Amino acid sequence: MIRLRIHVSHWPRPALVLTDTPRPDCPDCDGYGGIEHDYGDYETGEYAGTDWEPCPCWDETRCWTLLPLPRRPRWLRRQRPDVDPWAESPF
Prior knowledge:
Number of helices: 1
Helix content: under 10%
Number of strands: 5
């Protein structure tokens, strides 16, 4: 059974996509879609990172593009984050 949701994708270009979601009552992943495994360095035993193993209840590659979204204009992309371009009305 497919459990679909609408999602905003930013790569390779902005778009609305319809995507599959993990099974919420999956006993293996508890609805997260995968299982994390922490691992350590062989010599020191210190934490070295986390591996993520996808669960078979979910296919993360199953998605369909519904609507490509326009890119932000350059003048909006170049603005500093602390400046609100809509703070002052141009009228």
